[in-house]
Amino acid sequence: MMVRSMVLFVHIVGMLLLFIGLALEWLSLESLQRSTTPIQESPWVPVLRTLPRYMAMAVGLIVVSGIYLATRVGVFDLGWVRVSLGSMVFMGILGGPVVRSQMRGMLHAGDGDDKGTLSAVRRQASHPLLRASLRTRVGVGLAIIYLMIGKPDLGESLFVIGLALVLGVVTSVPQWRAQLSAIDG
Predict the structure, then answer these.
(1) Where do the domains of the chain lie?
(2) pLDDT for the residue 115
């Protein structure tokens, strides 16, 4: 029983680390978007550079402990468990390969010292893809927590995750439109 309690504790700590990481990413992007100082002086750049490692660790803790718990309790074949696991993998893809080039571009845009570089960093930090990815990952993460609490069947689990995806995208549409109108204008 103690092993199960420890693994459950690790699972919860992993979720807390995941949401702390998402909050730090949100704060970092907001701060860089509004920054008036060179990127080299920003305290948020080291945060953004190290965040992927910590987020990967959090996801690893969640997935490994979640698989252990689901197997141990005998619920691995239930819909909410499978949907949650698949959604965690999707969150990892959405936060890694999907936005990697945007993040690198933003962090490398600050390699110069002039005002044009600051403008490039601010523009990169406000890129709609970064915002859509972040909002969608937060929504999916919250939906997974709902699945863990409510333990719905497969259909409802897919609906909840689908709703989180739609909300993440829909809340990002105004920013996409603003960027497109800035390009056209």
Answers:
(1) 2-184
(2) 53
